[in-house]
Amino acid sequence: MDKQTARQMVHSAMLAPSSHNSQPWRFRLQDHSIELLADSSRALPVNDPNDRELHISCGCALMNMRLAAAKAQLGIEVQLLPDADNPELLARVVECPQAAEQPALAQLADLIPNRHTVRSEYEAGFDDGDLISELRQWTKLESVQLAAVSSEAQRSRIADLIARGDKALWADRAWRRELARWMLPANRGEGLAVSALWSPFIRAMIRWFNLGTMMARKNTRLAEKAPLLLVLSSCGDGPRQWLETGQALQRVLLGCCQRGYQGSFLNQPIQVSRLRTRLAKVTGLAHPQVLLRVGRPIEQAVASARRPLSGMLDPV
Asked: Which residue has the higher pLDDT, 198 or 62?
């Protein structure tokens, strides 16, 4: 593949969502392939002790590479976890001229810069039922199951699990310290953007004060008022399934974006193991991986900061 196409694929990949906007990926450009590697220096050992969310984030980046390749009419083969002796090598995208074109993926490529994580409130109502059916078909292609929360009773139980998750996470001082480290001014190109003037105060407040009750109240309200709540579940619970989940998640986010919707995450019940088991029972899903809130933003979406492309490329 030519260098311009390869760099465009990596540029698309770096616009993927990631936990705490940690951007935990690296790329290595070869003559006929691109390797996607985990950046362990950007792992979240307290929030994500098994690197589950790291793999999901990198799966989102991998899907963006696939979309960019489809737009460039470049046939590719994707190899997941190609080297058992190198677990940081998550995927290899290999040029494959005989591979069939994928126009459905090409259509989503232009939406990559328009997808944002919008944590504020959404407009009320959701009447786009055929979208859910389409999203289910897409996730199935990635070996992932998608379920929409369909009843108020189920929504209420999930909102309660979110509140319990917030309280459990915020009660953990190590978790708060890790979160505080990622509250950074936007000009840093990473992390959860806060005002440069107020960042020292905000980081200190998060580090020293348990805000679990306040956050539980806020996120419960967001869950109860969400126009649409989606849960993505995998058939297993290991690195391969996490990468598949990330690819499915990115297709879902871009499919929603295509219809004017954005999403944000309410993964607290999945981050606390005992609550994840309860979420599985509530939803009837074997391995819930992502809890997604979807709707039309009331406020204009703002892109999260990104690091320079040069800082993500490994020397060959």
From this structure: 62
Cα(70)–Cα(76) distance, integer angstroms: 8
Could you read off the pLDDT of 166-186 as tens digits, one per residue?
999 999 999 999 999 999 988
Neighbouring-strand partners of residue 145: 233
Distance CA 142, CA 138 (A): 7
3-state helix, strand, coil in the chain (%, to 5): 50, 20, 35
Angle (CA) 235-241-242 rounded to 5° is: 130
The per-residue b/e assignment along 189-206, b for 16 or more CB within 10 angstroms, e otherwise, is bbbbbbeeeebeeebeeb
Residues 246-261 have a mean pLDDT of: 97
Pinpoint the residues of the chain covered by CATH 3.40.109.10. 3-116, 129-171+210-295
* Total residue length of the chain: 316
pLDDT at 299: 87
**Residue 14 confidence (pLDDT) above 70:** yes
The hierarchical CATH code for the domain 3-116 is 3.40.109.10
- Residue 59: is its pLDDT beyond 90? yes
DSSP 188-241: GSSSEEE-TTTHHHHHHHHHH---HHHHHHHHHHHHHH-SEEEEEEESS-SHHH
Residue 13's Cβ-count burial label (10 Å; 0-12, 13-18, 19+) is buried
Instruction: Region of 3 please: left (phi>0), alpha (psi -120 to 50) or beta.
Output: alpha
Cα–Cα distance measured from residue 57 to residue 242, given in angstroms and rounded to the nearest whole number = 9
* pLDDT value, residue 1: 80
Our CA dihedral for 224, 229, 234, 240, rounded to 10 degrees, sits at -100
- Give the model's pLDDT for residue 316: 65
DSSP-derived letter for residue 45 is T
* Domain spanning 129-171+210-295, CATH class: alpha beta
Output the pTM of the full model. Answer: 0.97
